[in-house]
Protein 1
Amino acid sequence: MRFGVPASGPMDRIAYAAANRALGNPDGQPAIEISLGGLRLVCLSGEIGIAVAGGGFVVETGEIVTGSWSVLNLAAGETLSIRPGPWGCWTYLGFAGRPDVAHWLGSAATHALSGLGGGALQPGQTLTIADAAPGPAAARRIPCPVWARPQDELHVVIGPQDRFFPPEAIEALSAQAFALTDAYDRMGVRLSGPLLTPLNSLSIPSEPVLRGSVQVSGDGVATVLLADHQTTGGYPKIATIIDADLDGFVQLRPHDPVAFRKVTADRALQIARQRAQIHQDWLNGLGRG
Amino acid sequence: MSLAATVDTPRITPVADRAILVVFADDITEAAHEAVLRLDAALQDSAAPGIVETVPAFVSLLIVFDPIRTDHNAVAGLVRASLSRPAARTASPQIHDIAVCYDGDLAPDLDDVARLAGMSRDAAIAAHLAGDYSIFMYGFAPGYAYMAGVPESLRLDRKQSARRGVPAGSVLIAGPQCLVSTLTMPTGWWVIGRSDATILRDDPERQFLFDVGDRVRFRRVRRDELKGPANG
């Protein structure tokens, strides 16, 4: 972030990791992030195993209609269609092979605002996968753990600019309900709910921000900053969502309600350690599957 | 009530489960920014376990850590220990020479800037060229290097409304700050020229032209001396 570049990468990092592990890929292999816009692609030649993980999307190829959290085979001439299903905003399409895509700063992730990195796929674009290995003859399910579902209760640590808010605003943050709005993209999501109007805060020198910052504009409207967030901001941050809650948070859809639960920094750290262990154990289990 | 942050007694605040923010002042001062750069350099040298990244800004340093390997208290302890040691020498800053063309359509706000500053267009250009600029921080978007050093006579609040579609390479000013944009974007800053400086580079050894702390001198060029799409 010191050069103005956010960490970027997948919105739901656990689902992305699951798509790779389910195929036996190394962690960090490029995958395609699919939003509510969906995706259709045709396999032009060869045969390849694919995994779709994240959200509750509908996945269709040939005779097979299944959901995300599946591993299947895609052969030349077959069309794969992935479209929004009952829940979730983001799903990940992983390939048993190495996608040939551009890298920037050692990553194939795409910074949506600038297009830097692997790049957003365009209609008609061809994607080449090196060392493609075929998938299973019959579709195989990846178990979808309960913590990969949308999460509407979020742990936050108050601050770091809480001194710019009256006590009523801090109280309202955890006592009242908010909802996601349609102003939602890879940079962040604006919330509706009680106004958290800051005190005289317009002169704060810009400070670095983290993914998960709850930033409040002068009129009191809160925005949660996400994967492609700006790296500094002059608006005060009333609270910051703990990292482990962000993957579930981004699977909420616009207009879904959300509530914040205040925790101390020490408690947040404990939760981070517990979750990391659970996620790691689960991913390791997938690799053996 | 929290106490005022100072260079000697910075405010150290936990940020969620994985960072602390060290704030050296409540307003932008040279001394506070120097303290940021000193602490940043000290932490980069220390190679302490679990530190993921340090992010310098005007008067604050964000220290992101791996919550599995360390914790808020340990990192805050590291900060206090660094502050109590005599200041380490920071690397000597590079000086960059950056070409700017101030021609009409490349500088759509220059006439307004000159008028509001009560000077001629040429005087506004001379004032901009006379500034002593240093890179305070990167922010906002990849390669957006914020420079301080716009002369007092040319300091204007940002515009009431943003201009849309301002091309990459635009030279922008607002208050004491100046930057050369790297993306086409709307901006509420004043667009006073165009540069061909390549801030995002292909060189894996140096992906970004500037380091925080580097100094910049602007040099006026004709349009046909600019490299790339702005020329023509």
Protein 2
Amino acid sequence: MSGNLVSARVWKFGDNINTDLMLPGDVHMATEEVQASRVFSANRPGWLAEMTPGDIIIGGKNYGTGSSRPASRSLRNIGIACVIADSVNSLFFRNCVNFGLLALECPGVSDLFTEEGQICEISLDNFTVRNKTTGKILNAQKVPANLLALMRGGGIYPVLEKEGFIAPMKARPAEAAAGH
Amino acid sequence: MGMTMTEKILARTSGAKTVSPGEIVVVDVDTCVFIDNSFFPVYWREMLKLANPDKIVVVFDHRVPASDRAAAAAHVVGRAFVKQFGIKRFHDVGRDVGISHVVVSDRAYALPGTVLVCADSHTCSGGAFNCAARGVGAPDMIYTGVTGKTWFRVGETVRYDITGKLNAGVTTKDVFLHIANAFGEHANQNVEFGGPGLQHLSINARRTIATMGAEISADFAIFEADDAVIDYVKSRNPAPFEPANPDADAVYKYRRELALNEMEPLVALPDAVLNNSVPVGKVAGEKIDQAFIGSCANGTLDDFSIAARVLNGRRVAEGVRLLITPGSQEIYREAVRAGYVQILVDAGAIVTNATCGACGGGHLGVLGPGETCITASTRNFKGRMGDPTARIYMGSPATVAASAIAGVITHPGEFTKEALV
């Protein structure tokens, strides 16, 4: 993603989309790759093959309710450009900051997009969300600049690494892939 | 302008005179609790320094004793971390182990008026002790470990005034299901509890509600610090603390009454906690394969007592598995001393070691395809406890115990007429 304008097609999900749907418990301890291969496998099997990197997820109320597991990292790893929802669970929102996934709260966005495949245009200069297909526009809640920078810059690990707080990432043993 | 309990704690710990909804605050963290999940390769990042090892607690809870080789390897990493930094408050597999939030309660690590974080969503459990405790992400834990701080966005607060007393057969799990059903999600809001009915709720009964705060997406779920809380904490932890009770002119988004005498046993239908509960009678007769009582929400000594009173002298139905998992080994020992464990195993229950266990579908009671479970634990999401085709109903420990006896979902009043809380 470059610039302050994001434009892509949308996928619609409903209210209260929980973290277990994005990151199922049986791969909670598996590798990032395995975790990413199971996004929405319980509620929408086959979706991963349909979506393409750069797409946007539109949620309803309380997107990301549930556990502290890094569901946002899986969405980032499959290439989701942004999650926009009527409201976002604050723990999920933290993990979007932590792992570098753009997330916006935009009351009414679930009605702004009437169909999947419509094109969404986000401006991060003035925090607007526009349905390019219908021309209708809504204001999103502003994300403070420091949090936005983390969401767009790969999250907090690169910062902690640079400041000498944590060691560089080690190559993971292949065996970890077998864990759950 | 007055402040709510949450606002007072966030103001105090961020060095501000006041805070109000919408602000981002950076706070000093009093207690930072690492769990075994943090030490798996897919989560762990090696910290090169710690801000203060005495602020750190390490508890192995999700997979104890090690459920497979990956868990065993994570435990090895965790023990090395404890040794490297000389962390004193370490709860390894053995006498002092338990679910982190329950160990935090047993030891009163969540001090009134302070901030506590842990990489598990049910950390809000510590709110029962007037502590601003909440779940954060694994990277947040690393950040707090090395800096001693974290950030919060201050949310609006919803106040629940508790009045009256619970009727026979009703527990605070039913009270929570009522909140989730009647008021739905509380995303970006704090919930706070107080009022004259509080005196009739034990610390354990309050913990069930505070822990379930995560299920309505509350940021914090904080109870007033009455004498019961202050005496409880002082008897277990010598550290000084200053409770944060609300100002009379605090500003709330909503103020609602919870009349305990109006509550009845409820059951959440499969796949979702929010706006999804019915009175037990509506689903009575639904056949079950497994019944579970446990987790950070319902693995307390009160829950053992409730289950034992319902199951005393009775048997679990043929073809049904009843699994009971204490929240900590300390609770396990007390349940043995009180005679509850004898009653439960005589009835045919499997009483396991203290761990998160079946609640998260990790081990000790994973559900198979097409099975039906009724659980007194934290959540009933699709696929949560095992196969995604399994159906998970959620109710109180009394409802779960009664259902285990009958083999079908059953109102606890069929087997007990007494006040349970």
